[in-house]
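Hello support,

Our group uses your service weekly, and this is the first time we've seen a run hang past the timeout. The protein is Ribonuclease PH. I'm not sure whether the cause is the sequence or the server load. Input pasted verbatim:
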Amino acid sequence: MRPSGRAFDQLRPVSLEPGFSRHAEGSCLARFGDTHVLCTASVEERVPPFLRNTGKGWVTAEYGMLPRSTHTRTDREAAKGKQSGRTHEIQRLIGRSLRSVVDLAAMGERQIRIDCDVLQADGGTRTAAITGSWVALALAFRKLVEQGLLAAVPLTDHVAAVSCGLCEGVAVLDLDYPEDSTAWADANFVLTGRGGIVEIQGTAEECPFARDQFLELLALAEKGIGELVEIQKRALEA
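Update from on-call engineer: The timeout came from a worker crash unrelated to the input. Re-ran successfully.
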C-alpha cells in the first residue's frame, strides 16, 4: 500500500486552473495533490540577440520556490545573490520541454517567458510546472491570435510530465514527497500528447535497476501523461 493509499498506477488528484492570474497573457495554477505551482506566460515583442532578424520566436522559462513552500523556510535565491544549480537545471528543462512542441518560425520575432512559482511542494514540482506551463502557453498564444498578431496557435502537440519510481521494488506513478524521498529509483518523464519522448531523467538511489523495470516505469508514464493531456484539454475548454 502506498502512503497515500493510491493504486500503483494512479495519479494524485490533478487540477489545472486556467486564467488564475489576471494580468498575464496566459496562466494556470497546477495542482498535483499537495504540490501547487503557479505558471504564467508573458509575451514580449522581442527576441534574444541570437534570434534577431531570423523571423523566429523563442520560449524560455524561469522557476522558483517560495520560502515556505517546503516544511522549513528556505531563503529566497534573490537574497543569496545567485540561483542554485537545481533551479538552473529545472528552468532549462521546462523551456526545452515547451519548445519541443512550438513552431518557433510561426511565432514571429517575439518571446514568451514562462514563470513557474512553487507555492507548495510535495514532490514533483518540475513535472507539475511543465504540465501547467503548457496550458499557460496555449492561452497566451490564443490571446495573440485574438489580437490578430498570429494567424493560428503555433503549437504542434501537447506536452506534459510525470514522475515514476521504484518503491520497495514496485513501480509506481506520480511520486509524492514521502515516496520520492525513499524511492529505490525515480525518473521524470516528459512526453508529448502523441507519445513522443522529449526527455527522461532517471536515477538509481539504492542500486541499479533493470531494463525491464525501466520499461515498467515508461509504461506507467505513458498512461499518466495520457490522463494529464486530457486534463489539459479540459482546462482549455473551461
